[in-house]
Amino acid sequence: MDKKDYTIINNAKNTIPEFGDTFEKCKKEHYKTLSIASHELLNHISFLNSSYDLISKTYPETKNMRFWNSMGTSIYEITYMMKRLNLCRYCTFPNKENVTLNDLIYQLPDEADNAYPDSERRFRFDIPTEKININADKEQLLIAFNEIVSNCYEAGNDNDIIDISASLSDDKTHCTITFTNTGTLPDIKIPKEFRQICTKDFYYPDDINILSMAFYTTKPGHFGLGLFIANTVCLNHDGCLDVTHDDTHTSFHLSFAI
Questions:
Q1: pLDDT tier at 73 (50, 70, 90 boundaries)?
Q2: Separation CA 87–CA 81 (nearest Å)
Q3: What's the CATH number of domain 97-257, 2.30.42.10, 3.30.565.10, 3.40.50.300, 3.30.70.1660?
Q4: Sign of CA dihedral 122, 229, 99, 138
Q5: % of residues, the chain, pLDDT over 70
Q6: How far is CA 53 from CA 45, 49, 50, 84, 197, in A?
Q7: Which of 20, 136, 163, 248 is in Cβ range 3.0-4.6 Å of 180 for a Cys bridge?
């Protein structure tokens, strides 16, 4: 769903209380079903993963067996994908509390150093001196920010600067965090499997919003969940994710209700 869908649902929940209760019930049932299914799948995949590692270590000659290495690669990729999907589920329901965005933003360079220890990427901040406090899920916000930073790291060069700024809306109801990175977006084209679900009112081939659709990716070896996770977190906080770009830079704008 996008911001328009969330607005319609929230308006309906506010005007028809019974709808809100029913919608939340369906949402939780859906979440529960996915949780059970993904948990069971991850158990089996983890068994395959550990078994493959044990067999490979016990019998080194297996590396010369046809398809053995390819099978290992497939197991690792499925394991990674399941962990990413679990992260998506985790971001479904926010546990909100008072959060100071300034502190969270200044934490990002340390997070990036842990994830990319060999990179020389630098950060540049344009953050108001006064504290920006919002009612939000701190862990979910950090996950969303890290997903955007990860996207910046993989899209740019090792010595690029990532600019992070924060601003308040004129009516002081929303805050927008902007990440700007050197680099341009690739051609955004809808593959065949996505064209089947496209309608006139949905995504167009040149619509940049498709970048936040789950499983859409322009990078080999990626599952296309990073921007989807970031957008989900924004929507859960009555905001949205927008992307803008020019010939040299790409910016990700994450907005949240205060």
A1: confident
A2: 10
A3: 3.30.565.10
A4: negative
A5: 79
A6: 12, 6, 5, 21, 39
A7: 163
